[in-house]
Amino acid sequence: MSDNLVIIGGGASAVHATQTALEKGRAVTLIDIGVTGPEPALPGASLNGLKTDLEDPVAYFLGEDYSSLILPSNGSEYYGFPPSKEYVLRDVIGAEQKVAGIAPLSSYAGGGLAQAWTAGSYPFTDGELEAFPIGWSDMEPAYSEVARRIGVSGVTDDDLSAFMPTHEALQTPIPMDEHSQHLLATYSAKRAKLTAKHNMYLGRARIASLSQDHDGRPACSRCGRCLWGCPTQSIYTPSVTLEHLRRQPGFSYVPGVRVDRFEFDDGGRVKQIIAHRLEDGEAITLPVETLVLAAGTIGSARILLQSLHHTGQDVALSGLMDNRQVLMPFINLARVGSPFDDNSYQYNQLAIGAPMDHPHDYVHGLMTTLTTALIHPVAQSLPVGMRTATGIFRNIHGALGLVNINFADTRRADNTVSLEPGKDGKHRLVINYTPSADEADRIKRVVPKFRNFLMDMGCFAPPPMTRLRPMGASVHYAGVMPMLSDGGDFTTDRAGRLRPFENLIVADGSTFTSLPAKNLTFTLMANATRIMHEALA
């Protein structure tokens, strides 16, 4: 295999595939759209400091046109997308899509969707990898390598350890806010009863956020600005690695370019990519010796489908997966009237593990206490007028929390990505998703388990406030080019090589053979790293 690689994408998978290839002595050209975001506002200020020190704090928090304001709705989210991260979802393409059963999000940002992730870093177990042609022993070196690169904090000796295998390079945890401390202490005091009754477990989160200085990035200052974007890069995002790559010899970064398709010969060898510059529409043709698709599951599927269509092949890629999520707000009754901790890490510092009959069906809960945040989505959902709700909120702010309950998914033939004729002679992407036949029963069975677990910890989770998130909201898309030991066309081997092509590697979530309930990004980075080690050996 030739030394020169062309990698398409700029997200979590792409940048770690690139770093691995560079470390193995290969030259890499990374082609990306690469939308960039604003510089952090007043990097040394806390969240409350921004409210007083910014010239226009309303525009910063709610947007120039109030785009981050969440209006009252029974189906609305409990948190909005802040203006400072609007660039992550900015549509600079305007590509036509037809969707059913899912509303997928796309990112054209340098760093991809993980520029807005919440840093949860939970490795998959052997049981969760059962459908893959690899196991924990194959993934552990890559998890450890990525942890050394990005910085991951957490513990290895609590009740979640059975569901989160131990990798190397784990920093000590970031100090918890007072509410999280109270929840963990309550669990510890009642542990025997809680675990025996519910078969559920509480422990420290593992997060790609620094408790110690690392590779030029400072430890978390607990400024309360996580949701708006960490001003010091203490929370890892892929743009950190992209900045590092741009300083490395042998690396060429080509932003502002959208890859339309690749061309291949009769022997299945990719010869070149066809792309265009977004700024002026100029067509670009780039010869390829080895091509790596790492544009995210939807993006990589689009490129493959358009490449096949150009040769007269119209296929549907099957097996699209995504994690269903349920949001469960709660109030810790023992903390009503307690002050909230504004100098704190904002994302979840606790997690809940709920094992099921099969390891793959493990349910993962992210437990977040409400510290610094926009309060209106919560206050307006209270069953009283806004004036009364605001008064109530002041007394319960320090007692509020939310559990994000994640469910596993599996590949199914009727969940597809394909092309069909669209406007102006162009083709549009068609994405169809149908939940598994047992999804409603699983949710009906599991959600009360979480509610009862919280109740026995002294927390009340009002049933009317529990909300099923729409499919696609988790942005954990995967599975349309699955990794199989023995598969047909448009499946990959364990090294990401896409059948039937000779020199095409897939290094993103497209290769996942099943989708455990855990946050996806850490495993995306580790799997891309492992794939490049094996494919370039």
Describe the SSE topology:
Elements: E1 4-8, H1 12-23, E2 27-31, H2 47-53, H3 57-62, E3 97-100, H4 136-150, E4 152-153, E5 170-171, H5 178-189, H6 191-198, E6 201-204, H7 238-245, E7 251-254, E8 257-264, E9 270-277, E10 283-287, E11 290-293, H8 297-310, E12 317-318, E13 325-332, E14 350-354, E15 363-369, H9 376-379, H10 386-396, E16 400-406, E17 409-410, E18 416-421, E19 427-432, H11 439-456, E20 459-460, E21 467-468, E22 504-506, E23 514-515, H12 521-535
Parallel strand pairs: 1-2, 1-11, 2-7, 3-19, 4-5, 11-22
Antiparallel strand pairs: 6-14, 8-9, 9-10, 12-18, 13-16, 13-20, 13-21, 14-15, 15-16, 17-23, 18-19
Provide a quick synopsis of the model.
This protein is of the alpha/beta class and 537 residues long.
The main β sheet shows up as: 7 strands, antiparallel
Radius of gyration: 23 Å
Could you name the ranges where pLDDT drops below 50 across 5 or more consecutive residues? none
What percent of residues are in strands? Answer: 15-25%
Counting copies of identical and different chains, the oligomeric state is single chain
Determine the structural class based on helices, strands and strand pairing: alpha/beta
If you average the pLDDT, what whole number results?
Answer: 92
Number of strands: 23
Fraction of helical residues: 10-25%
Number of helices: 12
Distance between the termini: 9 Å
The geometry reads as globular
Structure description:
Helices cover 24% and strands 19% of the residues. It has 537 residues and is of the alpha/beta class. A hairpin with a 5-residue loop joins strand 8 and strand 9. Helix 1 (12-23) runs parallel beside helix 7. The mean pLDDT is 92.
